[in-house]
Amino acid sequence: MTKILMVCLGNICRSPLAEGILRVKAEKAGLDVAIDSAGTSNYHIGEHPDKRTISNAAMHAVDVANLKARQFSVSDFDEFDHIFVMDRSNYADVLSLARNDNDRRKVEMILNRVYPGSDMSVPDPYFGGEQGFENVFILLDKACDVIVSTLHKS
Ligand code: 4NP
Predict the structure, then answer these.
(1) What's the CATH number where 62 sits?
(2) Residue 29 CA to ligand 1 centre (angstroms)
C-alpha cells in the first residue's frame, strides 16, 4: 500500500483539504492508498480544520470535519512513501528534519505535480477570505488528479 502525507504549516487549512480530496479520488479510483496530513508547526495540534476549510470542502462533497491537526515528526519519513508540502517554507522546514537522501527524495512541492519544476506554492489562505479557500481547492484538486493518475500506473 502506498502511504502519502500532506504537509502545511498549521494542518488546519491546506493539508487537511489535500488529504480529503485525495482520499475521495483514491476511493473513486479503487486504489489502496493510506493518506494522512500534518503541520510543520505546533500551533493547532488537536484542533479540527478551520471552519472555512470544512465548509469549502463540504461544497465540493469532501468531508474533513473530523480530522485533527498533528505536528510533522521525523518518524513520518519512515512511515510515508511520499510527503507533499504546500509551500517553500514547508519544504525548507521538512527538509531540515531529513536524516539522509532517502528521506529527502520523498519530499515534493505538491504543485510540481501539475507544473513540473515551477516550485509554485499553494497560497496560505488563513489570513484571507473565502475566495482564498476556493483557490486552494482548485489547485489541490488538480494536483490530486495527477497524483492519482500516477498511482494508477505504478
Ligand atoms: P495551513 O494554514 O498551514 O494551511 O493550515 C495556516 C493555519 C494557521 C496559521 C497559518 C497558516 N497560523 O499562523 O496560525
Answers:
(1) 3.40.50.2300
(2) 30
